[in-house]
Design brief:
seven-stranded antiparallel sheet
């Protein structure tokens, strides 16, 4: 007899926070693979770092560095499943010699290849029924699959 139970959202978010904390606490012990390149058409530097615990891919950081903006995409995996994405977009402007910086963050929570919560920069939850929500879900799941295929260790 198998026992199957549904996790409620709060249990999933508690588990996500624990997994996120575990990965970031242990990250100095992980092996890394770096992929540095320049995207010629936009003049943007792209840096990708994959973090492995043994043969398990745990995190991928994709960073883009430009003259006026930077963006960072952090993908978190547990048992080869995407469970969290944290994005940061930082824009710099220069008015009268003064630098002004604006940063936008987004947090995307996943369970079973489904986006279950999206928090914007103000940590406000986005509507699960919106077209944007579904588009973001498809975008992140697709990107994560490509990254897993590219950076998964062949012995897994």
């Amino acid at each position: 007899m198998s026992l199957i139970f549904a996790q409620n959202d709060e249990e999933i978010f508690k588990q996500t926070r624990l997994q996120f904390k575990t990965i970031n606490d242990e990250i100095k012990t992980y092996t890394t693979l770096s992929d540095d390149s320049t995207i010629v058409e936009s003049g943007t530097d792209q840096i990708i770092i994959a973090y492995y615990k043994g043969k398990q891919l745990m995190k991928i950081e994709k960073n883009y560095l430009g003259d006026m903006a930077e963006s960072s995409f952090q993908y978190y995996f547990w048992n080869q499943q995407l469970f969290f994405v944290f994005t940061t977009f930082t824009y710099h402007s220069y008015n009268d010699g003064n630098e002004q910086t604006v940063t936008n963050e987004n947090r995307f929570y996943f369970n079973d290849n489904k986006l279950i919560r999206w928090l914007d920069s103000g940590k406000k939850q986005k509507d699960k029924n919106s077209a944007d929500f579904k588009n973001e879900e498809n975008n992140w799941i697709e990107n994560a699959k490509k990254l897993l295929d590219k950076y998964k260790k062949k012995d897994d």
